[in-house]
Amino acid sequence: MKVFGFVRDVPRTVRLLALGSFLNGVVSFTFVYLFVYLTGPRGLGVPQAGVIAGIGGIGLVAGNFTGGWFGDRYGHRRMLLTGALVSGAALAVLPVLPVAAMYGALPLAQYAAGVVRAANAALVAVSVPEGSRRQSFALVRAGSNAAFAVGPPLGALIAARFSYDWLFVADGLGTLLFAGYAAAVLPAHGTAHSRPVRDPGAPGLLRELRARPAVPVLLAAILCVDLVYRQQYSTLPVFLAEHGHGAQFYGWLLSINGGLILLLELPAAHALRRRAPLGIVGTGLLLVGLGYAVLIPGAGALFAVTMMASLTAGEILYKTTATAYVADQAPAHAQGRFQSLYAGASISGQVLAPPLGGALYAHAPGLLWPVCAVLACAAGAAVLAARRLRGAGTPSVPVCEGPAVPVPERRTQSG
Predict the structure, then answer these.
(1) Cα 330 to Cα 325: distance, rounded to the nearest angstrom
(2) How do residues 41-66 score in pLDDT, each as one tens digit?
(3) Which DSSP category does 3 fall into?
(4) Nearest by Cα to 136 from 273, 311, 42
């Protein structure tokens, strides 16, 4: 219980955002069943469904890459609310739209969802001082991961009892309710973080990145490893099925991943809070590579379980720590843009992993796991080497033992 005591010391804004992420994530299950919906009730062929799902994924990545830019200019709270309203409205009406309209509505909804994700990360970053952000990001991720454990089974129940159309209605209405919740708990004039930080004379983004050479190295490594990491959702189930493992076994593997993250990520973030971040991230990426290397000798159950355990350990180490490191390195006037760069890199595999991994597996199945292992290990080695670059270290700031900034009674930080 002592390990989890730090949750009380995380700023109230972050705790509220974590709760909001959980509530919104519980009903954010349409992406899981989108392809089934398009090829089933909508009666589309696999190629057409793939195109619609693909452009939706591109919209999501684009929203992550650009949401922070708007947040730095107009305020992160405002962009979170705008994105949630647009995404919720588009999803709620999707079932009544003709197929032609889905080519525009789905990427719009996904783009807005990406903006929400980037704004949410930026709000966490501006609510906690540099050097004390790992626990806060871990708490928000815990909310999202807990929601993912609940959402897909709930979605399956709704689809079975009612119809797949109701999945989109529930997702849309839930996202609109999340917008209302965020508006209530993040008042527009709560603190100094309510307004974007504007400095007309501040250096541009490229100059800021050049001043922090370890950050571009980290971003490139995250983009590379996300392409590898997300093979577990595309080529891995195909590989397992071809070696005699059914859908139930694959489901249990994903359960191992989710269960270990929920149990261990918060304690790990607390225990490692004083350790140098790039060393933790680099080790995590190496563990991802090691996990896929385990599959090279064979596809037995023990190999698969060991692979997932290594992959999960790597995820626990690198995801929260990397997010917090980018936030710590960001200047105040570009916090949103730094978070957008990380958010976009960290979800790019959702679009790139299926076609690239699928193409390699189709033409040279024996090369897929060695290539994945080499890419992830190379990314990890690059991050470890980046520790020697100028400005790579995180500023030495005592670990936060209370609210990071003054929060007036009944008022919270917002951006």
Answers:
(1) 9
(2) 888 887 788 888 888 889 999 999 99
(3) G
(4) 273
**Per-residue pLDDT reduced to its tens digit, 307-364:** 999 999 999 999 999 999 999 998 988 888 999 999 999 999 888 888 889 889 988 9
Q: Can you read off the two tokens belonging to residue 98?
A: 């003709």
Helices (H) and strands (E) in the chain, counts: 17, 0
Give, in order, the Cα–Cα distances in Å from 115 to each of 79, 95, 346, 402.
Answer: 7, 23, 14, 29
Neighbours of 51 (CB within 10 A): 14
- Write down the residue that tokens 């509530």 correspond to: 23
The residues near 8 (Cβ < 8 Å, ≥ 6 apart) are none
**3-class secondary structure, 64:** helix
| DSSP 8-class letter at 232 | G
From the list 350, 342, 66, the residue with the least C-alpha distance to 216 is 342
What is the DSSP secondary-structure string of 107-143? HHHHHHHHHHHHHHHHHHHHHS-TT--HHHHHHHHHH
Query: Closest Cα partner for 109 from 352, 345, 101?
Result: 101
